[in-house]
Amino acid sequence: MAEKIGIGIIGAGFMGMLHARALSQLADVRVLAASDPALKKAPQLPGQSEPLRLYPDHRELLDNPDIHAVVIATPEDLHCQSVKDSAAAGKHILLEKPIATTLEDADAIIEAADRHKVKLMMAHLLRYDVRYAQIKTAVQDGVIGKPLVCYARRNAVVQEARRLGGRVEVEEYISVHDIDQVFWYFDDRAVKVSAEVAEGPVMKELGVHDFIWITIRFEKGGLAIVETGWGLSESIVKWRRPSSWGGFGDVCLELIGEKGSLYLDYRPMTLSAVDEEGWKFPETLHWPEMHGEVVGDVLEEDRYFVRVINGEAPIISSGQDGRNALEVVLAAQRSYREDKPVRL
Length: 344
Hints:
Elements: E1 5-10, H1 14-24, E2 29-35, E3 53-55, H2 58-62, E4 69-72, H3 79-88, E5 92-96, H4 103-116, E6 120-123, H5 130-140, E7 147-157, H6 158-164, H7 170-186, E8 190-198, H8 201-206, E9 211-218, E10 223-232, E11 250-257, E12 261-265, E13 273-275, E14 278-280, E15 289-290, E16 293-294, H9 297-309, H10 319-338, E17 342-343
Parallel strand pairs: 1-2, 1-4, 2-3, 4-5, 5-6, 7-10
Antiparallel strand pairs: 7-11, 8-9, 8-17, 9-10, 11-12, 13-14, 15-16
Helix pairs in contact: 1-9, 3-4, 4-10, 7-10
């Protein structure tokens, strides 16, 4: 019987522990340890009799010879050092988005993985969603001809902004998803970016803007608009019980080509309910629970990461993909601050 892959979690917050749960469900994986200086008690995964081993410093986790790969889900400004240390220790890496906060750090992350010959896979979740992946397949198969225009919208509810507490702007945390998809579909280099923002209750409460619209021009003529926000009223998704019926926002995508068009619409998801407060739309795609397990896109992403580690599949969300998305995010921020388009 082949040895199970030992996994360590660096950054054991919401996303880190979500990956830990999903990976622990895979037969050929053992999630062994977590590192997070904010934790005082070792986390325990559902169905496991013993808690994970907790290291206050990720470098101690990396010294464990039973750990072959890590998930890095720390705040983005800590990604670079965590990747450098993990790569130097010979651990394969699944890195949460965004890749970094600066292009210099992004380049250092890519270089470290290349130099130490470890596999670096970006956790660009939508590439592992069957619906977004089918759009990519349709583009590759020439169903719509050359892609000309893409419009992507991803507006979250205000609870998402509150969960981050004003740590990042919405384009850094949410827009990167659809920016990455646009690069995936156009398969081209971005040459110009412009952006506008709108400020409202989120700005007043948390000090970050509510919505952003980003326009991306590609070298071969493609045009994309990415609309993102986290200012949707919490009242549209509030749900008392059960707590697993969390809320979801407003997501859609249109890709128009020379010979046809493709449309994705997550409004109002695929499940709805109504009570005296109104309509409720739980999240059923990215990481819902079913029969006590995490299912959906995050499970498929983690399953794919294991295939990458085993040499059974190529990396389809690379460090360079992460850098491309970050470059557009940074250009968008410069654009709205300086009130002018930015050429790349």
